[in-house]
């Protein structure tokens, strides 16, 4: 076996080895030297370690077992000190002497330290490796004031980490705006404001000339004569290729080690990849080009015909990153010049800035701040040098609304578009892997394709793509969201436990599931109470104290502490008798306003709580449930009895639906509408369930919403008889009751599950449909008209409605 | 104008439900009385410092009540508003004497 030696145990070098092993696992006997005492880790994520979000182990890319499994000899903590290119030997600081057939330099770069007076003092560090992180963490325990020199990406990440360590942080930048290599001035200003809000202090246009202090640093002096105090100084002004060893070995070196398109240096059998490399005059510091180089080199040195492999041609530079929680993307030439024009979107409300720079009808650069979802498309346009002269310029940066459906941008992406820029993984690579290797989590996709393995910025896209590719099989488990701050359990887990362990009391659920906050809160308790009642309708003990006041006293609380009363009027139909009673009651109890609601009911507003039971008694009408997470109203149009166009008896249908389902508890309110023809006078298309009459048939639309997120209902099915309408509503609503999270409207629920899935369960699967209907019938059998119940129960009246008056 | 503190009888303990607030009116003064356990009573002014929501109608969790209007979380025992909101509700000494609840106002 031929001997391959790698100098440098970092990301670029190890990726090259991975690519080699992938092609020819048996071709080389591999030895690796690395100066740091760790296996290969993800340097890009060091800031997470500093910020306390991850531990060193979490960012390890290849653990020691990986080296062992592939028979790789790793000398970590041992540096190569001399290379003899004539006899093909390397020598290490610990006295090792290793011969090679092929040698790869992947020595990376070193942080650039300002050569100023005092830079060698204790407390002056860089931000480059795990040791620097450890120094910052330990310093923060005994010192308070930190200064970061450099307002580039690295400096800002260091500053964010130091803030998390509870230090006061001054960021000193020599330029007038931040991250000038990635951002233009407006974007940089937005970033600066955001970071100031997070607690960073900026000193712009300042040049540091001296670091003062006895042994340890105590202050910084600037060129303009001003100074600041600091206990810790992090220099993050840039990096310089680590080329000392290569120089000594006699390789051709300019700014970095000079290589050709096959990553070959001036010496035979000696190659170089990564930040230490200069290719066609360019030195790269981003991971994507380095990985491309690794691929080219691996192909070249494993091929039987190395001269015929594809060479490296350079990389279009772009960055996509998160700076302190803000999404930033920048690519190509993004600064305006005389021969360029730009398309801009600047939304100060949402903190979004987008700029696309165009020259000769081609996109040549872009900066996106706050929302980077356009980046794959823009990059594609840049790479393919697409002519945009025929395009509507506005459509290059579509707004959220125009994009419409809230669909993830991955859906519209071409198979060849890049998802993971760091690792050069395109959409097609991921969908293929998901299908052929049956992947079901983001983690698995990362393991198999490398997508998301470096900066991690593309993980939301990977997740969307996974969900899109798998459809209903998508496992959201690794994106688990707890119910509230009182517990780690998700809504689904709580519901499953209630079922499995047969829990029927709110308190019991919190005990058994070991709620961290023992008494729960106003978010989780109503949810638990709902799930208990839904899962065990016959046995559940309703917990009045886990109900929001509206559902506890069966009226809507208003801003002044009074309540409103909405009596039930089935289908929105009333009569003079009812109206007289309502008028009398309104007079007697000094109702402040009588108002027709959006659901065609009458609302009596401004009622004192203690008057509620009396009013209900005099009205003699059932509760309209206008206050509940429950079936509310069924809005109807006039229909065939009176309307010239009506083709169905919408009023009777509405009344039948409302009588059957009134008061059923649901995860969130459920509003319905029945229209007698497609003119839709009852606005059926924006109801949770909307029924539309046709000649001899009913259409059932679902998932409509006229509220915050306006959504048009989608056709679930078309049925012929009134009974079928009632059955379909039963099955659909029961499925919503069982699978939605508490407080999830049907519109959001159906987007999460997908219409096709819901159709498959409630329309196509007749067995499940029948079971759902049966469970709904059980629930309906427990219905008690609440107002009547309260009128009859003196104890409830006394406990919940009476006010004590003393003097 | 009476300025001196006095004890007012708010009635027998059975009139108060555990973990359900009860409004007690003493003249113009609107109070929220909370019975957290069999023999644990607390009284605070029945007015959220935010928008004057009636705290008696709030959901009770442990020693806190959530205002029914905008979900502010208030400590029933000392009247302090939980962060990130700010403020304080006036508290009133409450004791049980011979099975009756007395509030000092």
H/I helix tally of chain B: 0
> Please, what is the CATH homologous superfamily of chain B?
Rieske [2Fe-2S] iron-sulphur domain
Work out the strand percent of chain B.
35-45%
CATH topology of the largest domain in chain A: FAD/NAD(P)-binding domain
Largest sheet of chain B: 4 strands, antiparallel
Low-confidence stretches of chain A: none
**Number of structural units classed as domains of chain A:** 5
Reading off the top of the CATH hierarchy, the class of the largest domain in chain A is best stated as: Alpha Beta
Q: For the CA atoms, what is the radius of gyration of chain B? A: 13 Å
Strand order of the largest sheet of chain B: 2-3-4-8
Regions of chain B with pLDDT < 50 over 5+ consecutive residues? Answer: none
- What is the subunit arrangement here? heterodimer
Keywords (chain A): 2Fe-2S, 4Fe-4S, FAD, Flavoprotein, Heme, Iron, Iron-sulfur, Metal-binding, Nitrate assimilation, Oxidoreductase
Cofactor (chain A): [2Fe-2S] cluster; siroheme; [4Fe-4S] cluster; FAD
GO biological process, one term (chain A): nitrate assimilation
Protein name (chain A): Nitrite reductase large subunit NirB
Can you characterise this structure?
Chain A: InterPro entries: BFD-like_2Fe2S-bd_dom, BFD-like_2Fe2S-bd_dom_sf, FAD/NAD-bd_sf, FAD/NAD-binding_dom, FAD/NAD-linked_Rdtase_dimer_sf, NasD-like, NiRdtase/SiRdtase_haem-b_fer, Nit/Sulf_reduc_fer-like_dom_sf. Chain A: Pfam families: Fer2_BFD, NIR_SIR, NIR_SIR_ferr, Pyr_redox_2, Rubredoxin_C. Chain A: [4Fe-4S] cluster binds at residues 637, 643, 677, 681. Chain A: Residues 558-619 form the Nitrite/Sulfite reductase ferredoxin-like domain. Chain A: It comes from Alkalicoccus halolimnae. Chain B: GO terms for molecular function: 2 iron, 2 sulfur cluster binding; metal ion binding; monooxygenase activity; nitrite reductase [NAD(P)H] activity; oxidoreductase activity, acting on paired donors, with incorporation or reduction of molecular oxygen. The complex is a heterodimer of chains A (807) and B (105). With 807 residues, chain A is of the alpha/beta class. Chain A has 5 domains: 2-108 and 242-308, 3-Layer(bba) Sandwich (FAD/NAD(P)-binding domain); 111-240, 3-Layer(bba) Sandwich (FAD/NAD(P)-binding domain); 410-475, Arc Repressor Mutant, subunit A (Orthogonal Bundle); 491-547, no CATH class; 629-784, Sulfite Reductase Hemoprotein, domain 1 (2-Layer Sandwich). Helices cover 33% and strands 22% of the residues of chain A. Chain A has 27 helices and 37 strands. Chain A has a 5-stranded parallel beta sheet with strand order 3-2-1-7-19, covered by helices on one side. In chain A, strands 9-16-10-11-12 form a 5-stranded parallel beta sheet, with helices on one face. In chain A, helix 20 crosses helix 26, helix 22 crosses helix 24 and helix 24 (755-764) packs across helix 25. The termini of chain A are far apart. The model of chain A has no long low-confidence stretch (mean pLDDT 90). Chain B has 105 residues and is an all-beta fold. Chain B has a single domain (7-104), classed as Rieske Iron-sulfur Protein, CATH 2.102.10.10. Helices cover 0% and strands 44% of the residues of chain B. Chain B is built from no helices and 10 strands. In chain B, the strands form 3 sheets. Chain B has a 4-stranded antiparallel beta sheet with strand order 2-3-4-8, with no helix packed on it. In chain B, a hairpin with a 2-residue loop joins strand 3 (29-37) and strand 4 (40-45). Chain A binds chain B through residues 517-522, 525-526, 544-549, 552-553, 557, 559-561, 609, 798-800, 803-807, and chain B through 8-11, 15, 17, 19-20, 22-27, 33, 51-54, 57-62, 64, 66, 68-69, 71, 73.
């Amino acid at each position: 076996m031929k001997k391959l030696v790698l100098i440098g145990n970092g990301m670029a070098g190890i990726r090259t080895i991975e690519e080699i092993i992938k092609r020819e696992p048996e071709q080389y006997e591999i030895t690796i030297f690395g100066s740091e005492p760790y296996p290969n880790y993800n340097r890009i994520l060091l800031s997470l370690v500093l910020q306390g979000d991850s531990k060193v182990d979490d960012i390890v890319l290849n653990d020691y077992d990986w080296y062992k499994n592939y028979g790789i000899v790793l000398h970590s903590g041992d540096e190569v000190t001399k290379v003899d290119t004539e006899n093909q030997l390397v020598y290490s600081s610990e006295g090792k002497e290793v011969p090679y057939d092929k040698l790869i330099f992947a020595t990376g770069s070193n942080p650039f330290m300002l050569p100023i007076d005092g830079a060698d003092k204790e407390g002056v560090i860089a931000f480059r490796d795990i040791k620097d992180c450890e120094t910052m963490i330990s310093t923060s325990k005994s010192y308070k004031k930190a200064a970061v020199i450099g307002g580039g990406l690295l400096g800002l990440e260091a500053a964010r980490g130091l803030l998390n360590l509870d230090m006061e942080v001054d960021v000193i930048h020599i330029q007038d705006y931040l991250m000038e290599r990635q951002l233009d001035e407006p974007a940089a200003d937005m970033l600066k404001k955001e970071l100031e809000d997070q607690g960073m202090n900026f000193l712009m246009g300042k040049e540091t000339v001296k670091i003062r202090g006895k042994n340890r640093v105590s202050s910084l002096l600037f060129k303009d004569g001003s100074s600041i105090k600091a206990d810790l100084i992090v220099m993050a002004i840039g990096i310089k290729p680590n080329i000392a060893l290569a120089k000594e070995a006699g390789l051709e070196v300019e700014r970095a080690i000079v290589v050709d398109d096959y990553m070959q240096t001036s010496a035979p059998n000696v190659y170089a990849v990564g930040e230490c490399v200069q290719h066609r005059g360019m030195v790269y510091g981003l991971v994507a080009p380095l990985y491309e180089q690794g691929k080219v080199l691996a192909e070249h040195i494993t091929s039987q015909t190395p001269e015929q492999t594809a060479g490296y041609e350079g990389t279009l530079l772009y960055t996509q990153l998160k700076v302190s929680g803000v999404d930033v993307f920048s690519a190509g030439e993004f600064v305006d010049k005389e021969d360029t024009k730009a398309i801009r979107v600047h939304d100060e409300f949402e903190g979004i800035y987008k700029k696309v720079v165009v020259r000769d009808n081609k996109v040549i650069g872009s900066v996106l701040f706050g929302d980077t979802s356009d980046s794959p498309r823009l990059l594609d346009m840049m790479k393919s040098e697409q002519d945009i002269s025929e395009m509507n310029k506005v459509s290059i940066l579509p707004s959220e609304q125009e994009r419409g459906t809230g669909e993830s941008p991955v859906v519209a992406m071409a198979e060849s578009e890049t998802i993971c820029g760091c690792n050069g993984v395109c959409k097609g690579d991921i969908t293929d892997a998901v299908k052929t290797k049956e992947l079901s989590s983001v983690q698995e996709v990362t393991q198999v394709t490398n997508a998301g393995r470096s900066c991690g910025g593309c993980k939301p896209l990977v997740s969307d793509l996974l969900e899109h590719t798998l459809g209903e099989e998508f496992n959201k488990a690794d994106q688990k969201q707890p119910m509230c701050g009182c517990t780690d359990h998700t809504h689904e887990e709580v519901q499953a436990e209630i079922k499995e362990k047969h829990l029927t009391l709110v308190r019991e659920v919190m005990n058994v599931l070991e709620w961290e906050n023992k008494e729960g809160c106003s978010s989780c308790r109503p949810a638990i109470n709902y799930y208990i009642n839904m899962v065990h309708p016959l046995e559940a003990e309703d917990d009045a104290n886990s109900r929001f006041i509206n559902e506890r006293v069966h009226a809507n609380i208003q801003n002044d502490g009074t309540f409103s009363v909405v009596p039930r009027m089935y289908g929105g139909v009333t009569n003079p008798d009812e109206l007289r009673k309502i008028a009398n009651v309104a007079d007697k109890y000094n109702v402040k306003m009588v108002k027709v609601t959006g659901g065609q009911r009458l609302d009596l507003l401004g009622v004192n709580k203690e008057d509620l039971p009396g009013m209900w008694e005099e009205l003699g009408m059932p509760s309209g449930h206008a206050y509940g997470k429950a079936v509310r109203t069924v809005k109807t149009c006039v229909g065939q009895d009176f309307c010239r166009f009506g083709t169905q008896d919408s009023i009777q249908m509405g009344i039948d639906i409302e009588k059957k389902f009134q008061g059923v508890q649901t995860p969130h309110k459920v509003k319905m509408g029945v229209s007698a023809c497609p003119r839709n006078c009852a606005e059926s298309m924006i109801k949770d369930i909307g029924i539309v009459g046709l000649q001899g048939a009913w259409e059932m639309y679902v998932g409509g919403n006229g509220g915050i997120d306006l959504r048009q209902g989608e056709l679930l099915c078309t049925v012929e008889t009134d009974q079928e309408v009632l059955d379909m509503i039963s099955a659909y609503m029961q499925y919503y009751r069982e699978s939605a999270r508490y407080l999830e409207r049907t519109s959001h629920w159906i987007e999460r599950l997908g219409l096709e899935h819901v159709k498959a369960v409630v329309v196509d699967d007749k067995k499940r449909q029948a079971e759902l209907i049966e469970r709904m019938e059980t629930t309906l059998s427990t219905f008690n008209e609440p107002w009547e119940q309260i009128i009859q129960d003196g104890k409830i009246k006394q406990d919940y409605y009476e006010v004590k008056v003393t003097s | 104008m009476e300025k001196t503190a006095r004890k007012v009888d708010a009635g027998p303990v059975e009139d108060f439900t555990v973990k359900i607030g009860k409004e007690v009116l003493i003249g113009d003064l609107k109070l929220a009385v909370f019975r957290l356990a069999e023999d644990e009573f607390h009284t605070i002014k029945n007015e959220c410092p935010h928008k004057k929501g009636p705290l008696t109608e709030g959901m009770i969790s442990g020693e806190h009540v959530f205002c029914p209007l905008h979900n502010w979380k208030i400590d029933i025992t000392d009247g302090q508003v939980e962060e990130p909101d700010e403020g304080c509700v006036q508290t009133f000494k409450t004791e049980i004497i011979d099975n009756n609840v007395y509030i000092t106002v």
